[in-house]
Amino acid sequence: MLRAGIWSSAESLFRFGLQFAVSIILARILPPEDFGIYALTFIFLSLSNILIDGGFSRALIQKQDIDQGIETAVFLYNILAAGILSLGIAAIAPLIAAEYGFPILRDLLFACAALIFIGSLGAVPSALMNRRLEFAKISRIMIVSSLLGSAAGVSAAVLGAGIWTFIIQSGVSAVYALVATWASTDWRPRGPWSLRPARSLTGFSTSLLASSLLEAAYSNGYPIILAKAYGVLDVAYFNRGQNVQANPASVISTTIQRLLFPSLASCIADTPKVKAMTKRAVCTAAAINTPLMMFLSIFSDLIIGTIYGQKWLPASSILTILAISGVVFPLQVINLQVLLAHGRAGMFLRIEITKKIIGIAFVIAGCFFGANGIAVGQAAFLFVALVLNAWPTKSLINYPLFEQLRDGIPSFVISCLVMGCLWLGASNLVMPDGMKLLSLLFLGGIAYLIIALIFGIGPFRELLAMMNFRKAQAG
Fold first, then answer.
1. For 430, what's the count of Cα atoms within 13 Å in the CB-facing half-sphere?
2. How far from the centroid of its chain's Cα atoms is residue 2's Cα?
3. CA 29 to chain centre
4. Cα within 13 Å of Cα(375), Cβ side
5. Residues 6+ apart with CB under 8 A from 401
6. Residue 216 DSSP code
7. What separation, in Å, do the N-terminal and C-terminal C-alpha atoms of the chain show?
8. pLDDT (tens digit, 9 = 90+) per residue, 362-418?
9. 100: exposed, middle or buried (Cβ count in 10 Å: 0-12, 13-18, 19+)
10. Please, what sign has the CA dihedral across residues 13, 157, 310, 224?
11. CA-to-CA distance for 28 and 409, rounded, in angstroms?
């Protein structure tokens, strides 16, 4: 499990660093309008990928006993769904382009339809590798895929590909990931080509499908609203601020999701063990995520202006707002993994429906105040969603929300202390913005690590125990 965690964390960190570096380069080469126009494709991509998967990939991981017939049936479903949805997107592409007044959007959607079909072909072998905890294989594939896609994207931007840079980057990455995934596994579809064996997964997968569709519509629907009401520039600024906040949070949450779900599912009958694993995940996530989100929120102007350039400064207010709520985001993921590991897909769906009704109401209210209003709505909704997500965890493993928050308080207090000192001292650092940002990051990181080690916060508790053990042995 430790080795799997190292591989998964290393891959997530590498991909985050690479994506971050590439986003800086592209943001300085391409105009914000290109980012805003391309963001209009997000809703179609996300909804299509969810419909193609149908929740079956997660069901393949969760179900204790599966056979070749079930695996082949899921593969067949993915191909059929991908074909139908790709044709559907191609059919409506001219209408969408005409509605928003960007002819290029039609061709972008055509290309996205092809990418959707390519991605569907690797869903089953990838899910089976996850089921077998083959994280080393998955990590190697994703790392190389990201490298190739990033190199292709940057090259395309430098050569003047413009908005097509995004398609080239995604296409190269998707094709390599597909080929490498099939080359890394001996699984092949066999047996009768029928959808019937997949019926045993429909209870779990259907609930996941419905909840995932709601989540995608909520998370990726804002470009549609912003572009129509305020223009693609507001979409670009919102997307930039959201991505800067979401990238580090996603590294943490993706690692948690990838490791925690299969681990909990494998020992779900042992409630004390499940609680201990969940508690460790909460402490670790809080110790890493809290100082990152606070730093992003406090120094958003400096971060956006220094890294992306002055033309992106309107995104800084979005980053400030979203980073505040990002402090609790890993808790959302952890509580949902506990629920899914118990196979409570029906309860999961009911919670998701309730959350999204509330979330949509927040977003609609925020729309009247532009991009910042939507950001405030999303931030407020995250705190409401946390209460709903954590409610079942109390009855399932006797780990209520107040106990989870209590476990995160030490990290929060230390983060407040360190970031407060940084904020007070930042005005005394007279140097170029780039050097100033690096200095604040370095000083804050060192101070936080020292204090966390002294008090044994989160994962640093185990590191401190290991150091004391080795010291005792040496003595």
1. 1
2. 22
3. 25
4. 27
5. 386, 387, 390, 391, 393, 394
6. H
7. 31
8. 888 888 888 899 999 989 999 999 999 999 998 888 899 999 999 889 999 999 999
9. middle
10. negative
11. 39
pLDDT for 233-255, tens place per residue? 999 999 899 988 887 877 777 77
- Chain centroid offset of residue 93 CA: 27
* Two structure tokens written together for 128: 């089976």
User: In residues, how long is the chain?
Assistant: 475
Which residue type is seen at 108? L
Give dist(CA 390, CA 347) in Å, integer.
12
Judge whether residue 299 has pLDDT over 60: yes
Q: Using CB atoms within 10 A of its CB, is residue 5 exposed (0-12), middle (13-18) or buried (19+)?
A: middle
Residue given tokens 């493993």 in the structure block: 397
Encoding tokens for residue 426?
């930042």
Check whether 336 has a pLDDT greater than 60: yes
Find where tokens 């044994």 sit: 456
Predicted local distance difference test score (pLDDT) of residue 4? 54
Distances (CA, A) of 99 to 40, 41, 102, 227: 12, 13, 8, 11
Q: Is the pTM of this model over 0.85?
A: no
Are 321 and 372 in contact, with CB atoms under 8 Å apart? yes
